[in-house]
Design brief:
Order of helices and strands: HHEEEEE
Helix content: 25-40%
Structural class: alpha+beta
Largest sheet: 3 strands, antiparallel
Radius of gyration: 25 Å
Strand content: 15-25%
Distance between the termini: 63 Å
Shape: elongated
Number of helices: 2
């Protein structure tokens, strides 16, 4: 999804009373507020969506892939979005494949029994 798609969805959700230009200003303002807060080291929590946190990375030694020489990478900060755990889809349980009847597998086949060797 691009920023233009997001602006269009916001405009569609609000209705005919607001133009796309106004929605673009709202989306830009929202994104700029998040950028400024994260740049200043603040965490932003949006209930039902997630938390934007500042992740601190330690200084480390890396290697130049072309020459193999060691390179010092300084400590740095970067943004991180910790999303809220999504609700399960309708008709599915909390498991990865939903509810399966006993003995079935996600591909729909049943486990083949091992052949028994007559003694």
């Amino acid at each position: 999804m691009t920023k233009a798609d997001l602006v269009q969805q916001v405009a569609d959700a609000i209705g005919p009373g607001v133009t796309r230009k106004d929605c673009a200003l709202v989306v830009d303002g929202f994104l700029n507020a998040i950028k400024q807060a994260v740049a200043s080291g603040e965490n932003i929590e949006i209930r039902g969506f997630g938390t934007f946190k500042v992740r601190r990375r330690k200084a480390r030694m890396a290697r130049n892939p072309r020459t193999g020489d060691p390179v010092h990478v300084p400590a740095q900060r970067g943004p991180r979005l910790q999303a809220v755990q999504a609700a399960p889809l309708p008709g599915r349980s909390s498991g990865r494949y939903g509810r399966l009847s006993p003995g079935t597998f996600p591909c729909g086949s049943r486990r083949a029994s091992s052949p028994r060797i007559a003694s």
